[in-house]
Amino acid sequence: MTEQHSHQFERGTDGPKVIVVGVDGSDSSLRAAAYAGGLARRQGALLALVYVQPGPAAAALGAPVAATTDEIAEDLVSQIRDAAERVKGMFDVRWEFHTVRGDPFSGLVKAADDLTADAVVVGASEQAGHRFAGSVAIRLVKAGRWPVTVVP
């Protein structure tokens, strides 16, 4: 008699396959991207770099905001491509760049859900007010949906 095992998807059993990292051009987000890149390389995971563009509330301020955030996204992709090219052959990492609109927390949650992320990496907030109001990182941890790494 042979025993058959059903195959079910279990997060975290074989290491992460998709690592989402939030990037916005800040020093802490670029450190988070570098850290997440190392994790992705060692695990053979896909590195999904996510830039959250300001949503409808910011867009109501006018077209210059949208144009500026598009320029930021283009600059981030250029920086990432340059970095990937510099280490090509030594540290190859599969990566994708995604932009979503909204507030940083909701945008990262949507991207992580859409990409079926196994882990989320973000940079520590550089804004002093977040100690009182709560940072994106704290909100992601409290959501309890993925392992979250906060890079200083």
Helical run tally = 6
User: What is the SS-derived class?
Assistant: alpha/beta
| CATH class value | Alpha Beta
Distance between the termini: 55 Å
What string gives the helices and strands in order?
EHEHHEHEHHE
User: What is the CATH superfamily?
Assistant: HUPs
> Helix fraction?
40-55%
The residue-averaged pLDDT reads 78
The main β sheet shows up as: 5 strands, parallel
Count of domains: 1
- Quote the beta fraction: 15-25%
Number of strands: 5
Biggest sheet strand line-up:
3-2-1-4-5
Radius of gyration using CA atoms only: 17 Å
CATH architecture: 3-Layer(aba) Sandwich
CATH topology: Rossmann fold
- Poorly predicted sequence stretches spanning 5 or more consecutive residues: 1-9
Overall, the morphology is globular
Write a structural description.
With 152 residues, the chain is of the alpha/beta class. The protein has six helices and five strands, in the order E-H-E-H-H-E-H-E-H-H-E. The longest helix has 24 residues, at 63-86. It is globular and about 35 Å long.
SSE topology:
Elements: E1 18-22, H1 27-43, E2 46-53, H2 56-59, H3 63-86, E3 95-101, H4 104-114, E4 119-123, H5 130-133, H6 136-143, E5 148-151
Parallel strand pairs: 1-2, 1-4, 2-3, 4-5
